[in-house]
Amino acid sequence: MSEGRREDVLATLRATDEPMTIVAIADELDVHPNTVRFHLDTLIADGRIERVQPERRGPGRPPQMFRAVHRMDPGGPRRYQELAEILVLSLANQRNAAAKAVSAGRAWARRITAHDTRTASSARQSARWLVDFLDELGFAPQLRTVNGQQQVGLRHCPFLELADGGSDVVCPVHLGLMRGALEAWHAPVTVEKLEPFVEPDLCLAHLRVNDLAIRE
User: Fold this and answer.
1) What is the pLDDT of residues 118-177, one digit of tens each?
2) Based on CB atoms within 10 Å of each CB, which residue in 107, 149, 178, 210 is the most buried?
3) At the top level of its lineage, which domain of life is listed (predicted)?
């Protein structure tokens, strides 16, 4: 009920181009001015309305004036997963979808590392930086060595719901992301391939240097 009344206050202000006083809003809605004042404080905090400096036309303190902020509601619901699904489906239906997804991942990495001026001095350092990078993004990475070859195991997918039905796009994006980060650091190592879901809770990124597997 409280939220409904708050929307009524906002709708009243949106219905006019002129600022309104608390008393005028209360009269319009047939409620007590204190009720309006309570909702105005919340609407101001949410950035949906603003106070307006009234013109001084006589002695005494002028009443406070308010008007709606004409923009999209910043407190409204977000549907980013649906947007991501739309983009994944759109890319999946294009020619060379995997290559384009890798390029998108590289572009994402360039954006994230735009202010990172580090240069990796060794394959070992590159691998550790990559693990830290992926950890910050929520991949729960683990550096591991199997048969003398170094890999990065990914125990969590931040885009799991999308990857379940769109791994042909989402996984190449991750591959491009890792390659792009390593390129940004001028690392002597790259990700040769990414194997998705080798186990129900594990994807594997295989690292290499000059076509030779990284060794301890």
Assistant:
1) 999 899 999 999 999 999 999 999 999 888 888 999 999 999 888 876 678 999 999 999
2) 178
3) Bacteria
Sheet strand arrangement including 49-52: 20-21, 65-68, 49-52
| Cα distance between residue 123 and residue 192, in whole Å | 14
- The model's pTM is 0.70
What superfamily does domain 97-209 belong to in CATH? Trafficking protein particle complex subunit 3 (3.30.1380.20)
